[in-house]
Amino acid sequence: MNTGPEQFVPHSIDLSALVRRSVASLYSHLVTRPMGQALRMGIESQIAELGEFCVSVLDFTQVIVLDYSCADEAVAKLVLRYQRDDRPSNAWFLARGVSEQHREPIEEVLSRHNLALAAEVEDEGFTLLGAATEEERDAWHVLQQEGTLTSAQAAQLLGSGESHAASILESLAARRTVFRANSPLRYIALATLLTRPGGRSRD
Amino acid sequence: MKIIAAPASLDERHFDSVFKGLAEAQGERVLVDLRHVRWVDPFGLVGLLAVGSVAARSGEQPLLQLPDEPEVISYMTRMGFFEEAEALYEIHGPKRRKGETRESDVLLEIMPIRAYDDVHTMVERVNERGQVILTSQLHYPRAQALQFTTLLSEVCQNIVDHAEAGGWVATQTYNLTRRPPGRRVVVIAVMDLGVGFRASLSSAHASRFVDRWTDATALEQAFMHGLNRFHDPHRGQGLQQIRRNAARWSGRVTIRSGTARITEVPDWDESPPLEEDLPEFPGSQIGIILPARLEAEAPPPVRSRQGVRR
Cβ contact (<8 Å) for B127 and A64? Predict the structure, then answer.
């Protein structure tokens, strides 16, 4: 697959706004499995409209309550679906507006499925939520700081061998927490893709 | 007619005598006598509704004799007890004042839970008033107060997901004079009249336990190990989260189902962690007590014999 960041469509989803459309009058309280399923279907249909490549921002800024059941359906199963080989399209996910009351359910449901999710967390900035090794977290943070890295550059910053750094970055790419671009081979932080000029955005 | 005399304190610790009385009725018409009740909490109120529902299955409407103590009746009114009870019981006793104003310190009046929509309604109600009560009276930080709503949401979803029947939820805050002494607490009661834990988990798990598949085993597997009726290893998080959050807040959680009861026992409590051979009662009955944060203790309450409501 010969892909570069110029092909990306940033896609921001205000979860509370989506809920308003999906399930009338229940906006800021994301609770129960049926609501999570409705949310996931809404997000999937928006992604489908955007084409092949898309970074989808899951915006929790307006969400007051998020329970585990809803988080499992709307976040974990969404990430899981686009991580599989039979995913409907190439979408990557970045959570935004994550505060303390959201973080625990999101971390819990991701960890249960052995998933990870890039997120911008209140009072902490960008971080990796869910299941990840220390090495994966370190590499992810270095990439997040630099924006774009080759495996050689990552190895230098991480103080490891290039093949080891490459395997960690490949693992992060396979888990869709970073973007792997070809020609030349390099890895790009998802937040960097969102800030590139020229991308279409849809709030 | 079987007369069931309710204890003076009608709460989770004392409610078994009512269940026992009902089990002994064996289809006779039942009169639940509340005359000597001096204290009732959400568990007691929701428990009375559950007992009334089960008693009515005999074909004869049960009777309810109201407490002599006007303050108790007033509290029952404020908690919305009679809106539900009038459909279940033939009610006798002192006249109740209609339309009594419900006090704002009630965290959540008795609310029926039959479908997911009820869970959404409950969450909205708790967030309207609950956040203020939890942050100002129990001194929970805002994020933790919101996690309390999450806990309630999960526990009520258990009714919809597993019980195959309706139930009720109610919560209230109190100052208790004992266990935990002098601390303000929030008391949560959630009950359903469904199939209970043993039957709910049976199709997915009973075969592994053969003749050891009892109410106690089912409760242990659900509460301690997160087993659930679905063949999905990623579900069953609700009870686990309830247990984890309650432990974080030094809370007490008890789940009674069938003939057994399991308790998450905090350091201020001495309940046995697992009880068996209790009087049989259908469905599940969950009681949760969450104390105020210790570092910001509420001022001492005005004491009565059992405790003080504010």
Answer: yes
